[in-house]
Design a protein that fits this description.
This protein is mainly alpha-helical. The chain has 10 helices and no strands. The protein starts with 8 loop residues before the first helix and ends with a helix.
Length: about 190
C-alpha cells in the first residue's frame, strides 16, 4: 500500500470511510497545527483549545461515518468552519453564563491566575510570535479573525469570506484595517519584531 502521507485529503477520507483508521490519523497529523492554532488564537486558553480541537475531530468523525460529508475537495476549510462555529458557540454560552466580578468590575477569573507560569510561552515558539499574538489580541474581533484565518490557517480570502459569511471585499478590508492597526500599535508601543 502507498505511503498515506502522499495521498490527497479526498483519498484519505475515502480510505477512512472504507475502514482504514490510519487514514484519519494522517489527516489529523496533516492539519492539527493549523486547526489547533486557529482555535487557540480565538479562545486564548490552552486547555480549552485542546478540548475544542478534540471535539472538532469527533464531529468530523461523526459526519464522515454518517455519510453526510460531501466530497468537495476542501477538507481543511470544512474542518476550520467546524472549529470556528464551535468557538462562536462557546462564546455564546460564556456570555449567557454567570460571571463573578470584583469590586473594580473585573472578572474574577482574570484576576486569579490558575495557569502554570510560562504555559503560553510553550505554545509560541519565539518572543516575536508572542508580541504579535498580543497585538493581534488587541484588534477588533472581525479584524483579528481574518488575520488569524489568513496567516495562521493559510485560508484564501474566498474561504475566509465563506466562513465569516461576508463578501471577499469585506474580508480584504478587514485584513487591510487589521494590518494598519497592527502597524500603528507597533509604532505607538515602539515594538520591533
Amino acid at each position: 500500500m502507498k505511503n498515506l502521507t502522499n495521498l490527497t485529503d479526498q483519498q484519505l477520507i475515502h480510505l477512512y470511510m472504507d475502514g482504514n483508521a490510519d487514514a484519519l490519523s494522517t489527516l489529523v497529523m496533516r492539519y492539527k497545527d493549523k486547526i489547533y492554532t486557529s482555535i487557540y488564537l480565538l479562545v486564548k486558553d490552552k486547555y480549552l483549545a485542546e478540548d475544542m480541537f478534540q471535539d472538532v475531530f469527533i464531529r468530523v468523525i461523526d459526519t464522515l461515518k454518517s455519510g453526510r460529508y460531501t466530497d468537495e475537495g476542501k477538507f481543511l476549510p470544512w474542518a476550520l468552519r467546524i472549529a470556528h462555529n464551535m468557538c462562536v458557540d462557546h462564546f455564546r454560552k460564556v456570555k449567557r453564563g454567570p460571571s463573578i466580578k470584583t469590586s473594580d468590575d473585573r472578572d474574577i477569573f482574570e484576576v486569579l491566575n490558575f495557569s502554570e507560569p510560562g504555559a503560553e510561552h510553550k505554545i509560541m515558539q519565539s518572543q516575536s510570535h508572542d508580541r504579535v499574538r498580543k497585538l493581534i489580541d488587541m484588534l477588533p474581533e472581525d479584524q483579528r479573525e481574518v488575520i488569524i484565518m489568513r496567516h495562521y490557517a493559510d485560508l484564501s480570502f474566498k474561504e475566509i469570506a465563506d466562513l465569516t459569511k461576508c463578501s471577499i471585499n469585506t474580508a480584504l478590508g478587514r485584513m487591510r484595517y487589521g494590518l494598519i492597526n497592527l502597524r500603528r500599535m507597533m509604532t505607538e508601543k515602539q515594538i520591533a519584531l
